[in-house]
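input
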Amino acid sequence: MTYDVFITSLTRVIELAGIGALLGGALIATAGFARDLTRDGLAAAYREYRANLGRAILLGLEILIIADIIGTIAVEPNLDNLTVLALIVLIRTFLSFALEVEISGRLPWRAVPPERPADATRA
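output
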């Protein structure tokens, strides 16, 4: 097996893992939604479902970025391929950022507000 064939095969396996993370995460999130729907009601179950789907997409995107980096850098690192890689990573990074904001409801550099004790609201 030559180096190029090995790297191409490795890239395909990692891409399949990324697709598996996307599909598996979607199935697990859907199962959780069905469970939460009967327990917590539609509004809470929907919010949790969207967050879980977003997490699955983030994981899948990260794995797919790994495959792109390996496939581009290890096989044929020329300027055209590096430019395409840079664009792919830029687009996927933007998607990851947007999903993180959607999931957490805040910008990543904003601190999580501290929890107030229940007694503080009565004072």
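quick obs: Residues 3-40 form the longest helix (38 residues).
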